[in-house]
Amino acid sequence: MATSSELVAIPARSGMAAPLKAGQRIRIVNTHGQQIVDTWAFNVRDMSEYLSMQHTRAYLDKVIPAAGDDLVSNRRRTMLRFLEDTSPGVHDTLIAACDIYRYIGLGVAEYHDNCQDNMYAALARLGLAAPTCPSPLNLWMNTPATDNHIEWLPPVSKAGDYVVLEAAFDCVVVMSACPQDIVPINGEARAPTEAHFMVYGG
């Protein structure tokens, strides 16, 4: 478990999971500024309850959450509280996690690292298993929908930007440093990088 004195790396193209007790906080850091971090949360006592973007959008009456907002589960309970955001606040709640089928559709013939597999692997390392891969909170992902068209744009965040989320009840937060290198959502260089996180408080 990370403490207030240690940052833990989320290796490029990989995932990490962190258990949080009620009241604990997690700081997720965009270390190099252009990295998307797919983020999920699950109830550690019942993994069928998870952070839900569709339920959160209905709860907030908006598409992109911001500091001060509560993020809710598929049972419409507050699961995480969005406390801080040092970035311009451009995130995504519409796009599913990338998976092997996404890369096949983009013309990749061989296996490609992907956020869905990263989520399952990160949970497995803690002895946990999720019944499904929910749509994540895609931190720093810049995919505006205009005139019924989605654009796949580089992040507008800068190196060191971070968000802070607080657990409303015991949960596990899962993060994937997105491996996407076909479209420029991880920057024009299309080179995924590491990110970091820290768990503290409580």
In short:
This protein is mostly beta strands and 202 residues long. The chain has helices at 53-60, 100-105, 115-125, and strands at residues 8-10, 15-20, 24-30, 37-43, 46-50, 70-72, 78-85, 137-139, 145-146, 149-150, 161-167, 171-177, 195-201.
Describe the structure.
The model has no long low-confidence stretch (mean pLDDT 96). The chain is 12% helix and 33% strand. The protein is mainly beta and 202 residues long. It has one domain (8-201). The two termini are 13 Å apart.
Overall 3D shape: globular
Largest sheet properties: 6 strands, antiparallel
| Beta-strand residue percentage | 25-35%
- What is the structural class? mainly beta
Ranges where pLDDT stays below 50 over 5 or more residues in a row are none
> How do the SSEs run, as a string of H and E?
EEEEEHEEHHEEEEEE
Q: What's the arrangement of strands in the largest beta sheet?
A: 1-13-3-11-7-6
Topology, pairings included?
Layout: E1 8-10, E2 15-20, E3 24-30, E4 37-43, E5 46-50, H1 53-60, E6 70-72, E7 78-85, H2 100-105, H3 115-125, E8 137-139, E9 145-146, E10 149-150, E11 161-167, E12 171-177, E13 195-201
Antiparallel strand pairs: 1-13, 2-12, 3-11, 3-13, 4-5, 4-8, 4-12, 6-7, 7-11, 9-10
